[in-house]
Amino acid sequence: MWLAGNLFKGSIATRFGRMLHLKRKEVYMECFRILGVHESADQNTVRHAYLDLVKRVHPDSGTEEASAERFQQVDEAFRVLQEKFAKGRRNIQEDEEEAMEFDIKHTAPQHRQYLSNEGIGVGTPFQRQKQYQQVRAMKAQERVLEHRIDKAAAGEKTLMSKGGSHFRKHAIKTKYGIDRVVEDLIQEAMSKGDFNNLNGSGKPLSSAQSQNPYLDFTTHKLNKIMLDNGFTPEWISLGKDIRDAIAQLKTKLRQERKYYGEWPLQRTEDLAAWKVFTLNHQDDVQQLNKLIDKYNLIVPILKNQFFRLHLDRMAEPIFKDPELQRNVIRPEMRAKPSSNIESQDSSSTSLFSLISKLL
C-alpha cells in the first residue's frame, strides 16, 4: 500500500487533494500506464518494459529522458505490479473495487524544533524515541493482522481448477522476507520453463545414491571413492575370506564324519580320533578367531559380525546329519596307524596357509 501511496503522491495527488481514495483497479491501470503496457500484459512483458524504461530514465543514463522523479515512479509502479502478480500466483483474491486510501505526507516546516522520528512524540528526545518505537510496533502488528486475514481468505480456495488439472496453493512463508522473494523467483522460472532441461527431470530419484543409515558419512564417502576406483573396503574382503575359511573347515568336518559313530561320541577309538583331529586344527581355529575379532571391530553393521569358532559346536550339527555316512574304517588304520596324524596335518596345510596370508 505504501508503494502505491508514494506512486500517486505526485501528479495524481494534485488532482485528488490531500487524501487519496482510489480503487485497486485504478491503481493498477495507472501503473500499467506509467510502464507503457496494456493492462492485460503478463509479468514477463511488464519486466521487459520496466528494464527498457529504466535504461532511458535513470538519472545516470545521460539521456534526454533522464529524471530522478520519473525513475522513482517507474520503479514503484513496477513493484506494485510485481506484488499483484505474486498474489495472483498464490491465489489471493483482491477486490479491485475496494477503495485504497493514501495520506499525502507533507514536508515538515523548517522552523519546527524536532524533525526526526517522523514528527511523532513529545518531550525529551529519549521519550520521543520511545514513543516512536511504540508506534512502529503497533503498525507492525497491524500489518501482521492484515497478512493473516489475506492468508485466511486464500485458504478458502486452496485448490483451483485450470484446464482440468488441479494446482495446490503455494504455502506462504512469513518468517523471512527473502523466502517469499526466492519462492517467487522459483515459481516464475518454472512457469517460463527454465527447469525443463534439467538432467533427470520428471524421473524418480536414484536409490543407488541412498546412504546406509547405520554407516557414518565419512566411511560412506570413503567406501564410495574406493569402489569408484576399483578397490573394496577391508571389512568386505576380510568377511569373504572368513566365510571361505569356515566353508573349508565345514567341508573337512563332513569328510571326517564317516569315520565316527553316533553323536555324542561314546567309543574310545572315536574319542581318541576326534582329539587328534581337534589338535591338528587347533592353530587354524585360533588364527581364524583372530580374523573374526579383527573383522568385528571394523565392520560397520552389527548384524554382519561373526561368532568365534569352536570345533565341538561346529561338529555337532554336522555329526547329527542323518544323510552322512557313519562307522567307515579309515584306510590309513589298516596299513600304518602311526601315519594318521601326518595325513591330517597335510590335509590342513591349505587352510592354514590361507589364514596365514590374511594375517
TrEMBL record:
Q: Which residues form the J domain?
A: 30-96
SUPFAM superfamilies, sorted: Chaperone J-domain
Q: Give the source species.
A: Drosophila sechellia (Fruit fly)
Q: This protein is called what?
A: GM16270
Superkingdom of this protein's organism: Eukaryota
Pfam families cross-referenced by the UniProt entry: DJC28_CD (PF09350), DnaJ (PF00226)
Lineage of origin: Eukaryota, Metazoa, Ecdysozoa, Arthropoda, Hexapoda
